[in-house]
Specification:
The protein is an alpha/beta fold and about 190 residues long. It contains six helices and seven strands. Strand 6, helix 6 and strand 7 form a beta-alpha-beta unit. Helix 1 crosses helix 2 and helix 2 packs parallel to helix 4. This is Phosphoribosyltransferase.
Length: about 190
């Protein structure tokens, strides 16, 4: 069921309500599944038990579900980055790997490093709503190697694994909007 990423009430096709919108907010957000049961277990195993083979299954099911969603006209997808130390320790960024498969299936250009995470932060899973927002404040930046292409990007989908409070997508979206991208959407595996 599509909902506004800000007030969490139902909305048409996951669009941000007019009363909830501002210049620096996401234009909408869609999640394929509820974050419960099998999907929750699969995502947790992928992230914390390094069960990378589950990522391929999640990608396949996610891609088969995407045509039923009403997505904006987009041409670019970028994943939520994780801090370099965490990526080196874990060995992968699940949002990058699954996002690459999604972009390929949807025939979107994939920009794996449009955003960078400037600082290490506490795991969002350990925090409540207000603390999550504070934890990520200023955590993202546009990768300097891509500043020259920003003006040519009309719309971008930011991909992440889970939308809980929306803090991660909102902070990343704000960063892209400040850089000049007009339309920014969030897409997650689960909510």
């Amino acid at each position: 069921r599509p909902i506004c990423p800000y007030c969490k009430h139902p909305s048409i096709d996951g669009l941000t309500h007019v009363n909830c919108s501002s210049k620096l907010r996401l234009d909408g957000s869609l999640s394929v599944w509820e974050y419960e049961s099998v999907i929750r277990k699969a995502i947790l195993a992928l992230k914390y038990r390094y069960a990378t083979e589950i990522g391929n299954e999640i990608s396949d099911y996610l891609i088969s579900s995407l045509p039923t969603l009403v997505l904006p006209t987009v041409h670019y997808l970028t994943p939520i980055p994780i801090y370099w130390y965490k990526e080196n320790t874990r060995g992968f960024n699940q949002s990058l790997e699954i996002g690459r498969a999604v972009a390929g299936a949807m025939d979107w250009k994939f920009i794996p490093d449009l955003l960078i995470k400037k600082q290490s932060t506490i795991s969002q899973a350990e925090l409540g709503g207000k603390a999550r927002r504070q934890n990520l404040k200023g955590a993202f930046a546009v990768n300097p190697t891509h500043k020259s292409i920003i003006n040519g990007l009309e719309s971008v989908v930011i991909f992440d694994d889970v939308f809980t409070t929306g803090s991660t997508l909102m902070e990343a979206g704000k960063t892209l909007k400040k850089a000049g991208i007009k339309k920014v959407w969030g897409l997650t595996i689960a909510r």
